[in-house]
């Protein structure tokens, strides 16, 4: 998956990304996220409070002391949770396991900046247990082997998050809000996949089908999911320019998606461009085999860097309305040997 955060240098993008991060974190962490956005021109990427807690990188020197303490305390709790989860894992059947990012994302949403709960008790809220019996061989008083039944406990991960939250509320003695649950989901998606699970501002997760890759028989992946046909607002070719009102050629296809919708690479390839342009806004181009190149324009956030190798379906950016744009959408182009061609010929 694409690396979390893009190596971008301009001040405008650093500020924008700070607000993106702030939008997905809980009220406790919002101020932290904003203060942790690096403002120095020498810094080449932004680091959110969540990324700092989940990572082991150096905490920026300009981070206020009180927030540095919160980040360090959370890192310590995460390390202790790793130990607790390893112990739980040792008592699970093969093939079953806790998702450590999920456990930590929930902890982050509920306890960042506050007093940590008993971590063993917290982690066990994500599991259920079964008492089982097995037959083992033991030695009797005379040294003879005898078969005896032994009981033992097996832990099983709970897949249903509603049950997990009910366990946490009862065991921790806390009330958990829908906002905190949503924040935990967003932090989980940010850390695991590189983008929040809902669009910026909390208005939803894009549109139906955008949360999973949609790849056709040819191997070509829709940049915005299976339902792209229902959101085409401007086709390739001649059209009336929405800004000038004059008839003009359109070099790609416009797909109306809310700001923050994950945008995916259409084919395996290498990122050639990932930068801001006055027309395309924040845009990405990817070079593919057989002379193909795809372009993704007007994004709110870029998640890849030039030279990075991506696979079909990898999230490369979040949609937006930057550059020469009249509203949130993805401008998608396909070029064959340098010539722009109709994306409909390729989309699944």
Molecular structure report:
With 348 residues, the protein is an alpha+beta fold. It has 2 domains: 1-124 and 160-197, no CATH class; 228-345, Glucose Permease (Domain IIA) (Distorted Sandwich), CATH 2.70.70.10. 29% of the residues lie in helices and 24% in strands. Strands 3, 6, 8, 9, 10, 12, 14 and 15 form an 8-stranded antiparallel sheet that branches. A hairpin with a 6-residue loop joins strand 4 (237-240) and strand 5. Helix 1 (11-24) runs antiparallel to helix 2 (27-36), helix 4 (65-89) packs antiparallel against helix 5 (100-111) and helix 5 (100-111) packs across helix 8. The chain starts with 10 loop residues before the first helix and ends in a 7-residue tail after the last strand.
The H-and-E topology, N to C, reads as HHHHHHEEHHEEEEEEEEEEEEE
List the domain count as a whole number: 2
What's the helix count? Answer: 8
Rg over C-alpha atoms, rounded to the nearest angstrom: 25 Å
Helix content, binned percent? 25-40%
Mean pLDDT: 81
- What structural class do you assign from the helix and strand content? alpha+beta
The largest sheet is: 8 strands, antiparallel
Shape: elongated
Percent of sequence in beta strands: 15-25%
Could you tell me how far the N terminus lies from the C terminus, measured between alpha carbons in angstroms?
21 Å
Low-confidence stretches: 1-47, 199-205
Number of strands: 15
């Amino acid at each position: 998956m694409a690396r979390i955060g893009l190596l971008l240098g301009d001040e405008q993008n650093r500020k924008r990304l700070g607000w993106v991060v702030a939008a997905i974190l809980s009220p406790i962490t919002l101020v932290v996220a904003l203060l942790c956005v690096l403002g120095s021109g020498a810094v080449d990427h932004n680091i959110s409070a969540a990324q700092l807690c989940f990572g082991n990188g150096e905490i920026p020197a300009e981070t206020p002391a009180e927030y540095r303490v919160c980040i360090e305390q959370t890192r310590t709790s995460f390390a202790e949770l790793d130990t607790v989860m390893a112990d739980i894992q040792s008592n699970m059947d093969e093939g079953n396991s806790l998702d450590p990012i999920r456990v930590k994302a929930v902890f982050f949403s509920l306890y960042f900046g506050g007093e940590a709960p008993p971590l063993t008790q917290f982690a066990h809220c994500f599991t259920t247990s079964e008492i089982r019996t097995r037959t083992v061989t033991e030695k009797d008083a005379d040294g003879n082997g005898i078969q005896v039944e032994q009981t033992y406990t097996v832990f099983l991960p709970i897949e249903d998050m509603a049950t997990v939250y009910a366990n946490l509320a009862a065991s921790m003695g806390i009330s958990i809000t829908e906002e905190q649950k949503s924040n935990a989901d967003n932090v989980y998606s940010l850390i695991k996949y590189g983008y929040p699970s809902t669009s910026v501002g909390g208005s939803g997760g894009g549109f139906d089908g955008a949360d999973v890759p949609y790849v056709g028989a040819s191997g070509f992946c829709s940049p915005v999911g299976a339902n792209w046909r229902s959101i085409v607002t401007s086709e390739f070719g001649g059209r009336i320019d929405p800004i000038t009102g004059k008839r003009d050629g359109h070099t790609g296809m416009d797909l109306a998606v809310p700001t923050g919708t994950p945008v995916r690479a259409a084919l395996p390839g290498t990122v050639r461009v990932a930068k801001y342009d006055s027309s395309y806004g924040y845009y990405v181009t990817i070079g593919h085999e057989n002379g193909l190149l795809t372009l993704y324009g007007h994004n709110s956030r870029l998640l890849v860097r030039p030279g990075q190798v991506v696979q079909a379906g990898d999230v490369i950016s979040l949609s937006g309305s930057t550059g020469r744009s009249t509203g949130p959408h993805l401008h998608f182009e396909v070029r064959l040997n340098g010539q722009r061609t109709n994306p409909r010929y390729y989309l699944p």
